[in-house]
Amino acid sequence: MRYLRVVEEQGRYVASLAEVPQPTPARGEVLIRVTASGVNRADLSQIAGRYPPPPGESEILGLEVAGTLVETGEPVCALLAGGGHAEYVAAPAGQVFPAPAGLDLVTAAGIPEASLTAFVNLIVEGGLEQEATVLVHAGASGVGLAAIQISKRSGARVAATTRSADKLKALDAVGVNLAIDTSRRDFAAEIEQRWGRDAVDVVLDPVGAATLAGDLRVLKTGGRIVVLSTMSGSEASLDLALLMRKRARIVGSTLRARSRAEKATIVSRFKHEILPSFATGALRVVVDAVFPVARAAEGFQRMRENRNVGKILIAWRSD
Predict the structure, then answer these.
(1) How far is Cα of residue 126 from the mean position of the Cα atoms in its chain?
(2) Whole-angstrom Cα distance, residue 3 to residue 37?
């Protein structure tokens, strides 16, 4: 089968197709004929040598796909620890779920990584409750837009940040209550001006060092900050007295490194609690761009340059 190889040359990505034997599913795995795969920042980190796959998982890039089960032809989506940017992938059965009815398979490829990341960090780790107040950083990313929608679905009031004025409309389109361009305004001051001090129950933060102090500043007593990436750096100063006074919790979270058993439990909950909302239209996949395999490097470069609003997808087939 063909798979996608991506390398960096002089600051730009170069993609090519290489050949490897079609994977043979091990016990507890199923073989998927890939229709489309999703591009994620984890792919960029893996290309740079900073984010290798967990031991025993495929070295091929790609953490999410949609396609059809080879054995039955059933349309499915799958969360992966690697191997997605290829014509076929052997996926753990517990990490596979039905593609929502009425959604084409290319679009459906944008569900697994973004929506499951939003789900596990808001609900499982963040303890999101009905009518809470939520702050989502990098709100125009695939994860950010999924998190806003899942939060709004629970009746939450949502503030979201972006570093680009051009992306504010995308935040408004998914129902955000307060969209903040952090290149022009301090997010903590803006939240305090609009909603008062100590207003936020849950913060979803992929930014890290640059935002942590502000996260704690706007947090309610007993609030939670869930850190899922460190795009601005991994070392931050923190007011521990304020942390104690607010009885706040800072939770570190990753999805890829979790065991297959833990992922299967998360996917099972997701199938029952979140997935039906895609079929009804209550939740949607915000697609930034779809690239054919021959132009895959453009998709990776677009993400690197922070030009995407929502998911970037690679189409392997038109079915």
Answers:
(1) 15
(2) 11
> Is residue 218 within 8 Å of 30, Cβ to Cβ?
no
The C-alpha atoms of residue 204 and residue 190 are separated, in whole angstroms, by: 17
Q: Please check whether residue 15 is in contact with residue 300, taking contact to mean a CB–CB distance below 8 angstroms.
A: yes
Dig out the tokens for 100 from the structure.
């929502």
In eight-state DSSP terms, residue 226 is E
d(C-alpha 68, C-alpha 89), whole Å: 11
CA 263 to chain centroid, in Å, comes to 15
Instruction: Please name which of 112, 113, 100, 204 lies closest in space to residue 156, comparing C-alpha atoms.
Output: 204
* Cα gap 144→152, rounded to integer Å: 12
Helices (H), 176-222: 187-195, 212-218
Say which residues have a Cβ less than 8 Å from residue 55's Cβ, sequence separation at least 6. Answer: none
- Would you call 105 exposed, middle or buried from its count of C-beta atoms within 10 A (0-12, 13-18, 19+)? buried
141 φ, ψ (degrees, to nearest 5): -75, 170
Q: Measure CA 271 to chain center.
A: 16
Instruction: List, for residues 193-211, the tens digit of each pLDDT value.
Output: 999 999 999 999 999 999 9
Beta-carbon contacts of 128 under 8 Å, excluding residues fewer than 6 positions away, are: 122, 134, 150, 151, 154, 156, 201, 202
The answer for residues whose C-beta is within 8 angstroms of residue 203's C-beta and 6 or more apart is: 134, 135, 136, 137, 215, 218, 219, 223, 224, 225, 226
CB 9 within 8 Å of CB 300:
no
Which amino acid is residue 221, in one-letter code?
T
Q: What does the pLDDT look like over 35-79, one tens digit per residue?
A: 999 999 999 999 999 999 999 999 999 999 999 999 999 999 999
C-alpha 208, offset from chain centre: 16
